[in-house]
Amino acid sequence: MASAKEFIERVDAVDGVAGCLLVTSEGGLLGQSVDNPDRYSALMLVCQGPLETVMANSGVDYCSHYSFYAEDGNNFHVFPIGKFIVGVVQQPFSATEVMLGQIQKLVRKVGSH
Amino acid sequence: MVHLIDGLKVIPGVMGACICHPQDGVQASNLPAIFKVERLETIGRQLIKMISAGRMSLNGVSDLLLRFEESMVVARELKGGGVVFALCDSSCHRQMLQMPLSLVVDGYAAAVAGSEKSPAVAAVVDAPEAVVPAAANISVDELIEGLQEELAPLVGPMAGMIVEDSVEVWEAGGRNVARIDALVDLICQEIGDDDKADAFRLATEVLIADLKKG
To answer: In which region does residue B133 sit, left (phi positive, over 0), alpha (psi from -120 to 50) or beta (all else)?
Structure first.
């Protein structure tokens, strides 16, 4: 994986991203550009087990991402990449699908190294 | 109840939907038969946990979306802690589900409020209030804390949530030392793993015996 700082900068540069964080699956914070990263990283870690259980019972073995959609537009998207997890805070009412597509490309590129 | 989710299934790309309650399990489903009830209950309960965690950490969470390679799940919380979720293929857009999901939420709330009360809600509403001596509450609080400490090494960070959810259900029947075994049973159900549940029962035996003596 590229350096955490470089990765964070690249994700932040995507249109619609308000901030992001990169954590290990054990909870170690590798880099962030959000306020209160602990709040987000705790959520990402807590959701890991339930996500795996849902996947196992749905017959799938790959999760591109999962998203919490908020009424005020402050959506939060999580991308599991092997031993790492990327969390992305979205700018309210920005174009979600375009942003997710660009982040997905970045995640695939970085995750394959 | 299944009529509530019929509107979801007609949307292009939607394989079917399910309504699941944390205590009652699956209340309605029009998903293909390959999705057994036990499997749907497990999925529903995990989605409830994820939405609950999201609600605690973020403001105003309404929907949860899980995107897999060729499919996705869209879930929304229902009144009383349940969830409705739709299983869709990857061509489906979340926006197309907004209105039908809102209709399910409204319809479910009306059903719960009306004569179609779900058993869990009825149980909570009809449960007699137990008269518990004030002194016993302190011991119960200590025990609940102890249960969470014993559970944490077995299930990790979900321990707090499991205990909290179980206590909420348990308290509806009365916060009474005599019913403490029922609380342990509820937690074991939530653990969902027989070996871990046995280990939890074993680990809490001394704790519960001490409480009962006191």
So the answer is: beta
Whether B32 has its CB under 8 Å from any CB of chain A: the answer is no
User: Are the beta carbons of B57 and A42 separated by less than 8 Å?
Assistant: yes
The bridge status of strand A76-81 relative to strand A84-90 is: antiparallel
Chain A residues within 8 A of B61 when measuring between CB atoms: 68-70
- Nearest residue in B to A61, CA atom: B68
Q: Is the minimum CB–CB distance between A1 and chain B shorter than 8 Å?
A: no
Task: Report yes or no: A29 at the B interface, CB cutoff 8 Å.
Answer: no
Q: Give B90's contacts in chain A (Cβ within 8 Å).
A: none
**Burial (CB count <10 Å: 0-12, 13-18, 19+), residue B202:** exposed
d(CA A108, CA A84): 12
Pick from A39, A55, A69: CB nearest B57: A39
* pLDDT tens across the length of chain B (214 residues): 778 898 898 899 999 999 999 888 999 999 988 888 999 999 999 999 999 999 999 988 989 999 998 899 999 999 888 999 999 998 888 888 999 999 999 999 888 877 554 444 444 334 333 333 333 444 777 778 888 878 877 766 567 778 888 888 888 888 777 788 888 888 888 887 777 788 888 878 777 777 766 5
State if pTM tops 0.95. Answer: no
Burial string for B152-180 (b: 16+ CB within 10 Å, else e) reads eebbeebbebbbebbbebbbbbebbbebb
- Kindly report the nearest CA distance between residue B121 and chain A, in angstroms: 25
Contact assessment for residue B52 and residue B44, using Cβ atoms and an 8 Å cutoff? no
